[in-house]
Amino acid sequence: MIRRTALLSTIALTLLLGACSKNQETADAGEGKQEQAADAQAAEAPAAEPAPERKMDYWKVLGPLLAGSYNGSCLRMPDGRKMDALVTIGADGKVASGDLQLDFHAAKMAMMMRSRDDKGQYSTLGTISIDDGKTGMLSLLSSPAGKESTVSLSSGDIGLICSNTSGVGSFNNQALFLTAAKLLNGKKQSIGCLDTKNLLVRRKVDVEVADGVIRIGDDAFDMKTAVSEGFTLMDGGGSLMLNVVMPQEKTVNVAYDGAGKLVNVQARDKQESTHFCTAEN
Description:
- Helices cover 20% and strands 44% of the residues.
- By secondary structure, it is an alpha+beta fold.
- Mean pLDDT is 83; it is low at 1-29.
């Protein structure tokens, strides 16, 4: 009787354990299917798109500087026909002369440079390209009083090259760093700089561009005394670089990305590099 009872207990326990094992397998299988379904959904879900690159809307400050009507003695290209023509530049970036009409508001590249000669007279050069220069290019040269100023406008093989252009001389009246400053917040930013005397040493340095002065750590460069100063915008406002040549052949270049973040600083005197700074990724 005792053996029979023990046998029945053993059988019951075996059946119970088998049922529990089967239930566990069923639960495990259900969890496995859920995990597979989750993995499948994750694989099917589209990858998160990177945030769009910020760009400076630079035409809002460049447009008012260039806006105006400029007439002169021109050559019509490609046939070289001489003619008097009027080139109109709008503050909105639209440029026109006769049937040649272009929109430079979203131009890929814009470069402006203002230089001072030995007599203290200024000349200003501006070049703006819609893309690779084939779709559209605008160039202006503002010379000192008594010298020739020019404007050229082209699209593909068609274009105008105008000399003795009136009105362009007004570009010389304003320092270009004042225009560039409107695109920057002027706040002090830190960046990693190499010790140019010991390239194994890198330290954080504060850089600030404000009130016409570039400050790199303890060194200051007053752009109001520059031999030449200006800026270059690339990638449709994706980057901006201040370009400055100081007396005694000192040069300073300060670069920002489209969000106004400091990314590169370089300076050198006549003999050697004095500052070399790059932002950490």
